[in-house]
Design goal:
globular; 415 residues; ten-stranded mixed beta sheet
């Protein structure tokens, strides 16, 4: 049936289209809006003022872990990377065997200040080297041969609603134009997308579109769908206006770089400082698929990551909010230990990830990878990424991780 009012979505695909553009609250439980579907834990108390908050940072494309946390003392590093291997003048030492890439100066300072943990050699059994599939594995918390319809954070929303928003503020906020699979859930939970960085033009366009959607005249061919979708868009419009006001009025003394990534983190800090009840924020930095001429591109990405995270942490500390927030990075896979013929690196397996915050136990966690491998062989992971998730769920978000991940994992020591 044709839709006489095409601005109002009448199908699942059309509704998702607006969500992908970063417009409004997406109801993932069969895509039904919040006012129709109540969580089984809807009577949970409102979150306390000093609730814990997780900020998840995706390094999209597969970050090269060996040129991020560099095993410079291992002779195999130079053997595998005769061109891409970093010299001593390009390194910031962590200890006698490991160093940061020189572009990570701000992260290096955070490590020295006791606010950064490095979880080494993180991966999973039988790794998949497809960007799409490996991202799906990380976002859903599945085995490599398992396909789950929900994300690990969506299952957290489902299973641990105590302390999460019941109405009003979203449970999760995504800073970007594509809602992450991590937020997919069985039950209905309001989630929200904002444009990445400080894209005020897109924010204005989103607001105008939401107002147009809400004002769509009656007479939609599917009366029930039209009603609940309009209500959903009304919720989204209220949240959009609230968030835009918060972002426009936010004052900070932190020196954020002028990158979209840093702008997104600035917006997260603004929403946290405003007392928003949201427990989870998701930010993405792309470009890590460095098959060709990696050196300069990777250095620039690491600088953006390092300086953006440092500014975010400084901002939280200035607002005395740093004790509430844990920031964690992840990437769908690392790169191969050996460089390729294009002076880049190809899809690999394991890589380090970072945990950042004033309550983090700093330093190295887990074991470093062995580089005693042949050309084009992969690293063997030593820490399952779900052990990282388990630690965050149990010890930071206050949720029993086995209910989310399907089994118990030995916790790590970074919290």
């Amino acid at each position: 049936m044709n839709n006489p009012h095409p601005i109002l979505p009448s199908t699942r695909r059309e509704f998702l289209h607006y969500g992908v553009k970063g417009v409004g609250l997406l109801a993932f439980s069969r895509f039904a809006p919040g006012f129709l579907v109540e969580s089984a834990y809807a009577q949970a108390p409102a979150p306390e003022k000093d609730r814990t908050i997780l900020v998840l940072v995706q390094l999209a494309g597969g970050n090269d872990g060996l040129n991020t946390v560099v095993p410079f003392a291992d002779p195999h590093y130079r053997r595998l990377r005769p061109n891409l291997g970093l010299g001593s003048d390009q390194l910031l030492r962590i200890n006698d065997t490991l160093a940061f890439h020189g572009a990570c100066a701000a992260l290096h300072e955070l490590l020295k200040d006791g606010k950064l943990g490095i979880v080494q050699n993180v991966g999973y059994p039988n790794p998949n080297r497809s960007h799409f599939r490996s991202t799906e594995i990380w976002e859903t918390g599945s085995d490599s041969n398992e396909f789950l319809p929900t994300g690990w954070l969506g299952r957290y929303f489902d299973n641990a609603c105590s302390g999460t928003p019941r109405r009003g503020d979203p449970c999760g906020v995504n800073l970007g134009n594509e809602m992450p699979q991590s937020f997919l859930s069985e039950q209905q939970h309001p989630t929200f997308s904002l444009p990445a960085g400080r894209n005020r033009r897109q924010q204005s366009e989103n607001l105008a579109l939401l107002e147009q959607l809400v004002q769509t005249p009656a007479g939609h061919p599917d009366h029930d769908n039209a009603g609940y979708l309009r209500h959903t868009m009304m919720d989204a419009l209220v949240t959009e206006k609230k968030f835009q006001k918060v972002l426009a009025n936010y004052q900070t003394k932190a020196a954020y770089p002028g990158t979209p990534f840093a702008g997104s983190l600035r917006n997260v800090a603004a929403l946290i400082a405003a007392g928003t009840a949201t427990r989870v924020y998701y930010v993405s930095l792309g470009g890590f698929d460095t098959h060709n001429n990696q050196a300069n591109a990777h250095a620039n990405l690491l600088r953006q990551l390092s300086e953006g995270l440092a500014a975010f942490q400084s901002d939280l500390e200035a607002k005395r909010l740093d004790g509430q927030v844990l920031t964690m990075t992840f990437s769908e896979f690392g790169r191969r230990p050996s460089e390729n013929e294009s002076r880049g690196t190809d899809h690999g397996t394991a890589a380090p990830l970072f945990v950042l915050g004033s309550r983090v136990k700093p330093g190295l966690h887990g074991t470093a990878p062995s580089l005693d491998v042949a050309r084009n062989q992969d690293l063997q992971y030593s820490t399952d990424f779900r052990a990282v998730y388990s630690t965050v769920l149990d010890q930071w978000l206050g949720c029993k991780s086995s209910a989310i991940l399907g089994q118990d994992y030995r916790p790590l020591g970074f919290i």
